[in-house]
Amino acid sequence: MSAAAQGMTIAFMMMCGLVMGLVFDVYRVASHRFHVARWLLPGLDVVYWAAATLGVFSILLSHNEGEVRMYVFLGLGIGVTGYFGLFSNWVVKLSGKLFDMIKSIFLFAWKLVDTILLTPFLWIVRLLAKILDIVFIVTVATLLWIGKLLLKPVARIGGWVWHKLLPVRRKFEPVVKAYRSLSERAKRIRDAWRKK
């Protein structure tokens, strides 16, 4: 590999180191600002390092056919160290302000949607539920009142018929008594049979 190609590879690796540091700072600030659970951080770290490794190797494959030599690590080290020495504080402050702004925009949008849509919608739903309750109670009360009115003449007729059937009921009284005594005897016999 020529010296020019090696120089280009070192330059690309330095850029990779800068980008890795930048992404790591943004990821660090985002996980802090959005309160990512601590138990998720090791998994996210693994994802970050896997993505960084794949990115570096894809650049190596496209520029020096995937050769990993000492100057590759040297370029990465220079890039990462240079980034953390020169830009990290600025990027952390800038990304923190950016995430705060995004958070404020989302909170404002959520309050706007809540005020314009959700609160009136919930108010309408509660009002409809109360109206339906009142309509149901009034309907049931009206139906009961109508039913009572309709059954009033029938109740009078039923009482009159029951009173008029008194002689007939008296005629059938011995039959009813005989049936009851027969059923009691049958029950006694059945109980005695079961005891045996």
From TrEMBL:
Keywords: Membrane, Transmembrane, Transmembrane helix. The chain crosses the membrane at residues 6-27, 39-62, 68-92, 104-125, 131-151. Signal peptide: none annotated. Pfam families: Spore_YabQ (PF09578). It comes from the Bacteria. It comes from Cohnella herbarum. The keyword rRNA-binding does not apply. InterPro entries: YabQ. The keyword Cell division does not apply. This is Spore cortex biosynthesis protein YabQ.
